[in-house]
Amino acid sequence: MSNPAENNKRALSIDALRGYAILTMVLSGTIAFGILPAWMYHAQTPPPTNEFDPTVFGITWVDLVFPFFLFAMGAAFPFSIGKRLEKGFSKWKISAENIFRGCQLTFFAIFIQHLYPWVISSPPDPRAWLITLSAFALMFPMFMRLPWKMPEWLRYAVKLAAFGAGIWMLLTVNYANDRSFALAYSNIIILVLANMAIFGSLAYILTAKNKLARLAILPFILAVFLGKDTDGSWQQAVFNFSPLPWMYKFYYLKYLFIVLPGSIAGEYILEWMGKSDEYTGKKRKNRTAIAMLLISFALILCNLIFLFTRLTVVNLIVTSALLIAGYFLLKSSQSVDEALWKKLFTAGAYLLMLGLFFEAFEGGIRKDHSTYSYYFVTSGLAFMALIFFSVVCDYLNCKKSVSFLVMAGQNPMIAYVGASMVVLPILQLIGVGPLLEKMLSNPWMGFLRGLLITGLVTLMTMLFTRIKWFWRT
């Protein structure tokens, strides 16, 4: 009998993790604000005002969304870059391609931020909804490889024309509140991803096949952050220097603490995909798989609960117990699947414990302003989430039950803008807007509103993925 993992030509676990991150990102942005429990928002923006308060410590499920996406981005490097290196492509060529990709993501960040409906009109009116829908449609020739047969020069001509039309739109649209076009006005999440596409990929290219060298980059970044407040220091000069402040800040490089560990997880999975296994002892192995499923989930849940409620001692004890249980469970791994989980678990356990030891530093863990505990803890939990999806997707082969995550993860750019640039504009134009507004006054209905919008975004993304209309940079 063959191992279920052997039948997978693609590591669905990475897609599922990315899909989970992008859809929960949509959900967190569409639920009602100010009336749900505090753990339903970023820990540092508690209800009822949802105003930023850096004195609040802890994390919620919302605070895991962005680091999980960054981790999945890093996990994709061995597939998108590593395989090209193995085929003999020049490092210079691959580096140039990834710099260009970062530039396209930067344009994407600026474009969508300017053409959100509430930026065009406040409050949004039919004109704003229609302009936003037009901007969404325009991004297909910008970021999608056109499915029709045509000469390559014509493809580039269409793409250039689409970008030209997009620039014209940015410069000529009348914005609300006397706003005008500005390069510095961009979507911060996408801008960070653009920086990671450039600097994360360059770090991977320089250290491909050398995990320790890749991790060795991080202490130097840490040193600049620790020295940035010393007046007259070269660390301060490096931290503050930016030739293009609207595109790059050294501050963004802190997220390499999540992206680079993600690239190591991707290498582990790529190595697993290249191995075969004699699938024996199915019953015992299934028990191990289910146990790892429960342990990885429990580690994420317990850290969210106890760090949010500030029961840090209890969290350390429970986390240590779960990690010890996982260690002994995988100690004598006998299959390629168990060997993969052991590698992922070992790396995740190290980062998670490192983050918990750093927890009291900088006052406590928080997303904003992000602490070193946050980077290490969320990276460790991302490893655990990847184990969870590895068991579900790549071992137990539950493809149908997680297909909505996988398909969203394969088309994340469309999913990211789906709510603001498609679903909400259409619902407003067909007259459903007043009902959506009424749902914001009740906690249960406010959460249901988020579920409905996220569900529509999911269906839309699945449709485009199924017909192979992907946005890529």
Low-pLDDT segments, ≥5 res:
1-9, 278-284
For the sheet with most strands, the description reads: none
Q: What fraction, in percent, of the residue positions are helical?
A: 55-70%
Number of strands: 0
Content-based structural category: mainly alpha
Order of helices and strands: HHHHHHHHHHHHHHHHHHHH
Query: What is the subunit arrangement here?
Result: single chain
What is the C-alpha radius of gyration, as a whole number of Å?
Answer: 23 Å
State the helix count.
20
Strand content: under 5%
General shape: globular
Distance between the termini: 41 Å
Mean pLDDT: 92
Entry summary:
The chain has 473 residues and is mainly α. It is 67% helix and 0% strand.
Characteristic terms for this protein:
disordered N terminus, 473 residues, mainly alpha, 67% helix, 20 helices
What does this structure look like?
By secondary structure, this protein is an all-alpha fold. It is 67% helix and 0% strand. It has 20 helices and no strands. It has helices at residues 12-30, 62-75, 77-86, 91-114, 117-120, 126-143, 152-172, 188-206, 211-215, 217-227, 234-240, 256-273, 282-308, 312-330, 336-357, 372-395, 403-409, 412-429, 433-438, 443-466. The longest helix is centred in the middle third of the chain and has 27 residues, at 282-308. It is globular and about 60 Å long.
Task: Please render the helix and strand layout as text.
Blueprint: H1 12-30, H2 62-75, H3 77-86, H4 91-114, H5 117-120, H6 126-143, H7 152-172, H8 188-206, H9 211-215, H10 217-227, H11 234-240, H12 256-273, H13 282-308, H14 312-330, H15 336-357, H16 372-395, H17 403-409, H18 412-429, H19 433-438, H20 443-466
